[in-house]
């Protein structure tokens, strides 16, 4: 009898907690008009960001030393960070899918602070990094660069 009473009390507590949770969640929900406005706003923002990223034309850079304008690079940070990604989705007269773009490779080199035993010429101050950026020059890239237009349809076209 005692175990049944305890089970009943637990069930009541669970139901009360569930009812409180449902009431709380209903208070958080927005009206359908607010939700659709928010969805439209998010879609517009995503579209602007995507268009900016997709149509940006990256520039090749050869061993350019860049100053750090915000924050600081830790003294012991030494190495290279490689980024392989898309170049641009913008072709003359149209946008293409990111899977069909040419590759663009970036290398950001952190050389750390020069110390007494280090070769001073091989190090940068900790407030500078070296950037290299280059298109991946595949045979298709070279042909399309020469003819200044896309020559092949991609899988997403």
Tell me what the structure shows:
Helix content is 38%, strand content 22%. It is built from three helices and six strands, in the order ααββββββα. The protein has helices at residues 2-28, 32-55, 139-147; strands spanning 61-67, 79-86, 90-91, 94-95, 103-110, 128-135. A four-stranded antiparallel β-sheet has the order 1-6-5-2, with no helix packed on it. The radius of gyration is 28 Å and the shape is extended. The mean pLDDT is 76.
Structural class: alpha+beta
Strand residues, percent: 15-25%
Radius of gyration of CA atoms, rounded to a whole number = 28 Å
Low-confidence stretches: none
The helix/strand order is HHEEEEEEH
Contiguous helical run count: 3
Annotation, overall tally of beta strands: 6
Proportion of helical residues: 25-40%
Strand order of the largest sheet: 1-6-5-2
Largest sheet: 4 strands, antiparallel
Short recap of the structure:
With 157 residues, the chain is α+β, with helices and mostly antiparallel strands.
């Amino acid at each position: 009898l005692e175990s049944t009473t305890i089970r009943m009390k637990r069930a009541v507590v669970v139901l009360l907690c569930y009812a409180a949770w449902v009431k709380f969640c209903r208070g958080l929900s927005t009206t359908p008009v607010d939700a659709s406005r928010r969805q439209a706003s998010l879609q517009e923002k995503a579209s602007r960001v995507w268009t900016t990223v997709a149509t940006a034309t990256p520039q090749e850079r050869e061993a350019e030393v860049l100053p750090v304008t915000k924050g600081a690079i830790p003294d012991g940070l030494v190495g290279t960070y490689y980024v392989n990604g898309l170049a641009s989705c913008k072709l003359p007269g149209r946008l293409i899918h990111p899977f069909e773009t040419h590759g663009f490779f970036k290398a950001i080199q952190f050389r750390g602070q020069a110390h007494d035993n280090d070769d001073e010429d091989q190090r940068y101050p900790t407030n500078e990094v070296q950037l290299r950026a280059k298109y991946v020059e595949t045979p298709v890239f070279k042909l399309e660069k020469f003819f200044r237009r896309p020559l092949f349809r991609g899988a997403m076209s």
